[in-house]
């Protein structure tokens, strides 16, 4: 594969992967404006974020078997069309309940892009390159939290929150055109893959029974839930506890994304000397230490705007090391049904994000503690799952192995 082809594939796959995060991040500065316009509270508006997570969790399980049965592109096109329709629906919403429903549908459409891009990493690149490719995808994805909230803040201030969803509609159209024209078919449809409920469930169970998969997918999902806690809680924390406006919040969000994305790129350098397993171990230990130090400061009332930003930056740096390595280790044992495996991995991740965002939305009073407590708790639980789960792995497939010697399920 030439460098030009490699770069182009990363760019397209990264755009697909970024669609969901962009849909999450871009409207966050508009929470107060949406609450005012739809006659509700910012906490209730955050349920539209929870609804998005629910849609992604369910949708990924739907698209996994479809991607294995019909190939990657047809289900991807259908999902993108659903996304475009739902984004336009969000822009025209006249009530908070209507917005929540459209956000669920929007998520179901966007997760086709997420699942397809992850599965195509496994299709197009050797297993030894997967962790590096995931890190590069995070670099492309990193543009969204750096740009989306900042742009969203200015767009909301100038044109209102409806314009944000019109922009997302346009993005969906552009990505659909790019994938139709330039993304290669990476997987031959498996006509033996049944779409009846029982075979689909049995296929998912076969994936889940792989110890390396459930250990690292759950570890990565729970650790990543700390990021969802930050995304769900940060509008309330920064705009109602520390009283920043939409534009300032957008710039803070962009700055904090540098920690997450920067560490994911440094990960490629660490992989030259350390295994993915070693990096996950160290990153999780650091994540726990930072999380509980952050929580102690929050409970004691010592946090300021600056110290909050610093703690969040350090915590997100740890997540940037954990996710790409946990994802690569999760998918390493699979070749034939990587679509189903990536769907389950994404469903675990978004399921955890849904639970943690709903929990945070239950706290109506402005406070830093719910967000920070959820972040610290997720880090500790992820470390426990990793330590316990590794005891059941008898034949580990290392992502640093040069050959695709994974388990053929």
TrEMBL record:
Residue ranges of coiled coil: none
Q: Name one GO cellular component term.
A: plasma membrane
Q: What kind of membrane protein is this, topologically?
A: Multi-pass membrane protein
Q: Tell me if Membrane is a UniProt keyword of this record.
A: yes
Keyword Signal in the entry? The reply is: no
Which InterPro entries does this one have?
Efflux_drug-R_Bcr/CmlA (IPR004812), MFS (IPR011701), MFS_dom (IPR020846), MFS_trans_sf (IPR036259)
MF terms in GO: sodium:proton antiporter activity; xenobiotic transmembrane transporter activity
Main localization, broad class? membrane
Keywords on record: Cell membrane, Membrane, Transmembrane, Transmembrane helix, Transport
Q: Please give a single GO biological process term from the UniProt record.
A: xenobiotic detoxification by transmembrane export across the plasma membrane
Q: Which residues form the signal peptide?
A: none
Q: Where is the Major facilitator superfamily (MFS) profile domain?
A: 9-391
Q: Which residues cross the membrane?
A: 45-64, 76-94, 100-121, 133-155, 161-183, 213-231, 251-272, 279-299, 305-323, 343-363, 369-388
Q: Which domain of life is it from?
A: Bacteria
Do you know which NCBIfam families this protein is assigned to? efflux_Bcr_CflA
Q: Which family does it belong to?
A: Belongs to the major facilitator superfamily. Bcr/CmlA family.
Task: List, alphabetically, the PANTHER family matched.
Answer: MAJOR FACILITATOR SUPERFAMILY, POLYAMINE TRANSPORTER 2-RELATED
Q: What is this protein called?
A: Multidrug effflux MFS transporter
Q: Tell me which species this is from.
A: Dyadobacter pollutisoli
């Amino acid at each position: 594969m030439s460098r030009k082809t490699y770069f182009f594939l990363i760019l397209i796959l990264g755009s697909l992967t970024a669609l969901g995060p962009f849909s999450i991040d871009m409207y966050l500065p508009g929470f107060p404006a949406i609450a005012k316009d739809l006659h509700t509270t910012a906490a209730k508006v955050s349920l539209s974020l929870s609804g998005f997570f629910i849609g992604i969790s369910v949708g990924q399980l739907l698209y996994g078997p479809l991607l294995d049965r019909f190939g990657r592109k047809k289900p991807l096109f259908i999902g993108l069309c659903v996304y475009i329709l739902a984004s336009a629906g969000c822009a025209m919403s006249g009530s908070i309940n209507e917005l929540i429903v459209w956000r669920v549908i929007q998520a179901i459409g966007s997760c086709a892009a997420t699942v397809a891009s992850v599965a195509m990493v496994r299709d197009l690149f050797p297993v030894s390159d997967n962790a590096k490719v995931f890190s590069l995808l995070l670099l492309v994805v990193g543009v969204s939290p750096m740009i989306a909230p900042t742009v969203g803040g200015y767009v909301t201030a100038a044109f209102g929150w409806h314009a944000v969803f019109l922009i997302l509609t346009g993005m969906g159209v552009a990505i659909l055109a790019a994938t139709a024209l330039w993304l290669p078919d990476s997987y031959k449809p498996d006509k033996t893959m049944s779409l009846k409920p029982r075979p689909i469930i049995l296929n998912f169970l076969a994936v889940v029974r792989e110890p390396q998969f459930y250990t690292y997918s759950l570890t990565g999902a729970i650790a990543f839930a700390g990021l969802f806690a930050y995304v769900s809680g940060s509008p309330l924390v920064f705009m109602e506890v520390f009283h920043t406006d939409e534009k300032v919040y957008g710039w803070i969000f962009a700055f904090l994304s540098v920690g997450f994305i920067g560490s994911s790129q440094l990960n490629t350098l660490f992989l030259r000397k350390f295994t993915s397993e070693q990096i996950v171990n160290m990153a999780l230990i650091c994540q726990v230490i930072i999380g509980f130090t952050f929580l102690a400061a929050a409970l004691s009332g010592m946090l300021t705007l600056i110290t909050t930003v610093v703690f969040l930056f350090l915590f997100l740096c740890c997540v940037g090391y954990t996710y790409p390595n946990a994802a690569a280790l999760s998918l390493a044992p699979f070749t034939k049904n990587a679509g189903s495996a990536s769907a389950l991995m994404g469903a675990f991740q978004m399921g955890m994000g849904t639970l943690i965002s709903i929990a945070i939305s239950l706290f109506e009073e402005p406070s830093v503690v719910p967000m920070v407590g959820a972040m610290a708790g997720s880090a500790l639980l992820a470390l426990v799952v990793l330590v316990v789960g590794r005891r059941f792995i008898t034949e580990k497939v290392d992502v640093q192995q040069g050959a695709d010697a994974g388990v053929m399920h």
